[in-house]
Amino acid sequence: MTKQIKVTPLAEESLGVRSMCTHIQTKDTNILLDAGASLAPKRWGYPPHPREYHALEECRKKIAKTATKAEITTISHYHFDHHTPSYTDWFTNWSTPETAKKIYHGKLVLAKSYRSMVNASQRRRGWLFSKGAGSHAKRIESADGKTFQFGETKLKFSDPVFHGPENTQLGWLLMVTIECGDEKVMFASDVQGPIHTPTLNQILAEKPQLVMIGGPPTYLEGFRVKEEHIETGMQNLKTLVENVPTTILEHHLLRDENWRSRSQPIFAAAKQAGHKVLTAAEYSGKTNNLLESRRRQLFETEPPSSDFMKWLKLPLQKRKLQKPPI
Q1: Through-space distance between the first and last CA atoms of the chain, rounded to whole angstroms
Q2: Which residues make beta-bridge pairs with 185?
Q3: Strand duo 183-188 + 246-250: pairing
Q4: Within a 13 Å sphere around the CA of 128, how many CA atoms are in the beta-carbon half?
Q5: Can you name the residues that pair with 148 across neighbouring β-strands?
Q6: Cβ pair 75, 109 in contact under 8 A
Q7: What CA–CA distance (Å, rounded) separates 132 from 87?
Q8: What is the rounded CA–CA span in Å between residue 188 and residue 73?
Q9: CB-based contact 217:206 (threshold 8 Å)
């Protein structure tokens, strides 16, 4: 735990949504990391359950409220669970142009460049962000490999690292180290373990007291992600928790209904080293609310209302424009 850097998770897998949005506060500044949140359009063959929409609505409220006091927002990459687009989509993002304006208005936005080391879809999304939500910002700066100083608080962005394994089609993202006094907190969103070992070495070289990291996507093992990549990601995660005092473990790994049992070697390694591994909910003193991994079960045990089911039958474009009746 850190004293000079206050870490407050706002929207996370353990809070019921796809996101790693986190508020960082130091004596010098307020920072909103990766201010996006979304739901998987399909999982187990099912669309999002009303419980997931309730969680998304709650997380969106927290992000909007925190944005009013943040001076800086960051974008590690241009997936919609890591930034908020400036168009209406109630189906997966619970977003509107007004939602995005509230988050980015008057802010210094430190963002992954959409011009270099970026795949085609994120280049387009980055450009659209600059013309839409980003147009409300005080200014947008490409943060790739740069360090920014605010009083005694330093934000050090990595060069682009892989969104998972080497040369993945998912592209690249930025990690960021927040430093204040003798404390360091590192935010490594979709590195997936990390699967790429040079990324692990970069994290360890920073010597952070706390790392917030996305775990390997074990729920995609064997069909979207190679088994050996998952194995490498889990092994690198084990090495990480052995070396970092506190790890907040989130994102892809928590979409696996068996994530806790799959992670037993991770927890054991941390305990042996006298270190902590927690979800964002646990770090915040809350109960884990892992909804996506339980989606099939939720539809069976808590059948949605007839109005909700009627809404689900609307064409996709109408579902995006019409708020779900939850």
Answers
A1: 37
A2: 178, 210
A3: unpaired
A4: 16
A5: 155
A6: yes
A7: 8
A8: 15
A9: no
Q: Which two tokens stand for residue 241?
A: 């928790």
**β partners of residue 110:** 74, 141
How distant, in Å, are the alpha carbons of 172, 174, 221 from that of 75? Answer: 12, 8, 27
**pLDDT in tens for each of the 326 residues of the chain?**
789 999 999 999 999 999 999 999 999 999 999 999 999 999 999 999 999 999 999 999 999 999 999 999 999 999 999 999 999 999 999 999 999 999 999 999 999 999 999 999 999 999 999 999 999 999 999 999 999 999 999 999 999 999 999 999 999 999 999 999 999 999 999 999 999 999 999 999 999 999 999 999 999 999 899 999 999 999 999 999 999 999 999 999 999 999 999 999 999 999 999 999 999 999 999 999 999 999 999 999 999 999 999 999 999 999 999 999 99
One-letter amino acid of 177:
T
Report residue 55 as tokens. 């969680």
CB atoms within 10 A of CB 34: 28
Question: Locate tokens 């394994």: which residue?
Answer: 165
Tell which residue, 210, 175, 201, 178, has the closest CA to residue 190: 175
